[in-house]
User: Which sequence fits this backbone?
């Protein structure tokens, strides 16, 4: 009985995880899918092949998304790592963390519409830099919250030992702190990358529709009722997170063991 | 040197976390009181009075809360039941990897998939037609862009179920619940008593901050409602953006009122969490 229900549960989980990917992949290769056909009348690799054509709008969005996500991931991880240290050892740690918590939990799109005025005044609305700055407002607080737990008494003692033995703070950072936090830095980078990669509301408001990331592109294709290109963009959106999550899991498991 | 890096850290915290909040909400507050902005002539409470008199805004908050509550109730209860019963399946093997896959779905992609699956022209409708359950597209029920928000709840469920499942599986392990189960069984407790007196209270208590945070995220979600919701009733974020981004300038102050009330709502939740000292960072 237990085996049968286990089997059914495994089947349910497998379906839940695989069916969406299959449907999206099939749609991305489809050309015509009229009701009531279960499968598309015509399959084609044209849309995927077109991705490699110079100037293809989806490829441009893919590169834009990648650049933004990589920059946001790298900047927020680096800054968050050092800011979190100052906060973690501060006696007003809780209040400072509350400040970091708020931008992270607020709806990005509501935050964006409130901030849009300033981005227009700074002449960065509708630019890639504007979107990067706006995304840092949510990614950096996440990074700070993420790293605060890392700075504990043990780390403090390691730094003290290096200092006692004549090592400078920079040496302690390079030879002790960074090697100790390597896995966490990588995980945080992935998470911040994903925050940026998944972001739509804030990007569409601050980007003004001019910064066409993949999520913005998906929405555009949907409003144009072009489900096949939307599916293709969705597949491209899923691909890096799947790779990162797979790597993340391996790293997490290695870190836990 | 140490002082310089501390100053830089506080500066970055101020620039990227504090300043955007103060500036954004400050502007919203001033606009809603008629002090700044086009068509505004001076301090007035009329936009706040108009917003609170507008039933659509109050309905919007209640609707968003109901969608978030329904999605979380389903997600947490199903994930908890699955984790307690099939905990061992997620320790190793193919399923333990596969369950991470939905976490790679952005909200936009999740909403698109559910639309293609549950809409009248979607895959499920086609399966029903082919199986002879329905005889036309119109006979298939409205499960997306419907007034009950079924499509939205299902999408949030699809995206949050794996997260809570993994969370509960990890809590069962870290809280050594299996040891407690054995202990309670040896003391004569029934399986039902063990589940309802030990497992559920421990899991709920430990996951409480995550549940509240997820509630806040779903409450303020934008991508899923904008694709799968409808214009009446409307969720908070979609209504705020519509009022602030569209062409009717008279609606803008009310849009800012919604943004401020929403922020206060989130603040209250965060303060409740902090008061109970249950946030991970507070310990």
Assistant:
């Amino acid at each position: 009985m237990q085996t049968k229900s286990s089997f059914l549960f495994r089947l349910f989980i497998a379906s839940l995880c695989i069916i969406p990917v299959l449907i999206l992949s099939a749609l991305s290769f489809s050309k015509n899918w009229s009701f009531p056909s279960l499968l598309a009348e015509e399959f084609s690799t044209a849309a995927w092949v077109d991705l490699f054509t110079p100037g293809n709008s989806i490829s441009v969005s893919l590169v834009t998304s990648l650049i933004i996500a990589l920059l946001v991931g790298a900047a927020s991880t680096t800054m968050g790592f050092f800011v979190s240290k100052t906060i973690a050892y501060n006696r007003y740690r809780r209040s400072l963390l509350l400040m970091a918590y708020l931008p992270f939990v607020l709806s990005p799109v509501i935050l964006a519409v409130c901030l849009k005025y300033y981005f227009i005044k700074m002449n960065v609305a509708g630019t890639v830099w504007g979107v990067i700055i706006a995304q840092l407002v949510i990614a950096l607080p996440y990074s700070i919250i993420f790293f605060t737990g890392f700075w504990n008494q043990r780390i403090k003692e390691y730094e003290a030992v290096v200092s006692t033995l004549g090592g400078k703070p920079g040496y302690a950072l390079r030879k002790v702190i960074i090697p100790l936090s390597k896995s966490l830095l990588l995980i945080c980078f992935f998470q911040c990358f994903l925050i940026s990669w998944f972001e739509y509301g804030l990007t569409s408001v601050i980007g003004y529709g001019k910064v066409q990331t993949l999520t913005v592109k998906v929405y555009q294709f949907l409003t144009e009722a072009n489900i096949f290109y939307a599916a293709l963009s969705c597949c491209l959106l899923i691909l890096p997170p799947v790779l990162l999550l797979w790597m993340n899991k391996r790293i997490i498991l290695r870190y836990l063991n | 040197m140490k002082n310089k890096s501390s100053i830089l850290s506080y500066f970055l915290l101020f620039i990227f976390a504090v300043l955007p909040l103060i500036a954004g909400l400050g502007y919203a507050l001033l606009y809603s009181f008629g002090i700044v902005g086009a068509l505004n002539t001076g301090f007035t409470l009329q936009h706040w009075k108009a917003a609170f008199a507008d039933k659509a805004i109050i309905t919007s908050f209640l609707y968003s809360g109901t969608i978030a509550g329904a999605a979380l109730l389903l997600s947490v209860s199903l994930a908890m039941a699955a984790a307690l019963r099939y905990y061992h399946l997620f320790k190793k093997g193919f399923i333990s990897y596969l369950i991470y896959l939905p976490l790679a779905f952005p909200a936009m992609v999740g909403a698109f998939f559910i639309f293609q699956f549950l809409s009248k022209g979607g895959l499920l409708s086609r399966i029903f037609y082919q199986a002879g359950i329905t005889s036309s597209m119109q006979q298939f029920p409205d499960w997306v862009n419907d007034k009950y928000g079924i499509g939205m709840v299902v999408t949030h469920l699809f995206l949050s179920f794996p997260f809570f499942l993994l969370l509960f599986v990890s809590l069962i392990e870290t809280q050594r619940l299996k040891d407690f189960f054995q202990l309670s069984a040896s003391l004569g407790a029934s399986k039902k008593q063990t589940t309802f007196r030990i497992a559920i209270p421990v899991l709920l208590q430990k996951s409480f901050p995550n549940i509240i945070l997820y509630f806040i995220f779903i409450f303020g979600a934008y991508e899923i409602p904008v694709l799968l919701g409808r214009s009446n009733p409307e969720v908070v974020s979609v209504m705020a953006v519509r009022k602030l981004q569209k062409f009717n300038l008279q609606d803008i102050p009310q849009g800012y009122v919604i943004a401020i009330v929403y922020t206060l709502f989130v603040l209250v939740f965060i303060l409740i969490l902090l008061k109970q000292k249950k946030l991970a960072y507070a310990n």
Observations:
- Chain B touches chain A through 83 residues (CB under 8 Å).
- The radius of gyration of chain B is 23 Å.
